[in-house]
Amino acid sequence: DPPDWAVVMAAIAGGLFPNVVQVERSTPKYQGPANPGERNKWMRYSILQRHLNDSGAVSYPKACNMHPNSLCFGLDQFQCPLLAFYTIQQTTKLYVYDASEVSAWAVLLFGNKVVWNDRSSRLEVGDWAFFPCANGDRALPLINAARGAVQAVLAEKIKDPKYEAVSAPAVLACVDLLRTGGFGYTPWN
Q: Is the pTM of this model over 0.85?
């Protein structure tokens, strides 16, 4: 069987979190065909810069650029405005390499703790990934249950390496969430 790329990409995103780039597309000055370099100028990328100082941990958004050798360079439309990355390097600019688009469910299931912000009506993951959700307060217990089930399966696999995690109901439910984008069906391509 061929690999299920939605699940593979979710696993990669989970392994790379919090190495996540936020992507925002600005409005082009003109309409019409454009080369990848022109399309890339329409995009705004930012990472969450983290470091320690005398008062403790500090984090803030920092602008970055997609490296021209990255496969995501020149792409100007994403299903989810988040990219997971492996490498970031400061040369003439701060460049992101090895980036891949991630799904909202990958971040919700495998990222940091998910919290509900009642004031902004959104789910927040690690003070960096934000998902508008009108009924997020009702969805949060379900998301936490799925996250807890995945952690329980992983703990069992660590305890017993022969444990067949692939057929565990919790894993199958999470694979369905990832495969279908949370809708419970696979859209036509």
A: no
The whole-angstrom separation of Cα 182 and Cα 179 is: 8
In whole angstroms, give the CA distance from residue 140 to residue 182: 13
The phi-psi region of residue 126 (left if phi > 0; otherwise alpha if psi is between -120 and 50; otherwise beta) is left
Radius of gyration of the chain (CA): 18
Instruction: Give the up-direction half-sphere exposure of residue 23: CA atoms within 13 A in the CB hemisphere.
Output: 27
Band of residue 52 on the pLDDT scale cut at 50, 70, 90: confident
Helices assigned H by DSSP within 69-168: 104-110, 136-159
131 burial class (0-12, 13-18, 19+ CB within 10 angstroms)? middle
The tokens 């990669």 sit on which residue? Answer: 12
Tens digit of each residue's pLDDT (9 = 90 or more) over 73-111: 988 888 888 999 999 999 999 999 889 988 899 999 998
How far apart, in Å, are the Cα atoms of 142 and each of 20, 48, 149?
24, 27, 10
Burial 86-101 (b: 16+ CB within 10 A, else e): eebeeeeebbbbbbbb
Which of 12, 4, 1, 5 has the alpha carbon at shortest distance from 107?
A: 12
3 state DSSP class of 59: strand
Distance CA 124, CA 40 (A): 27
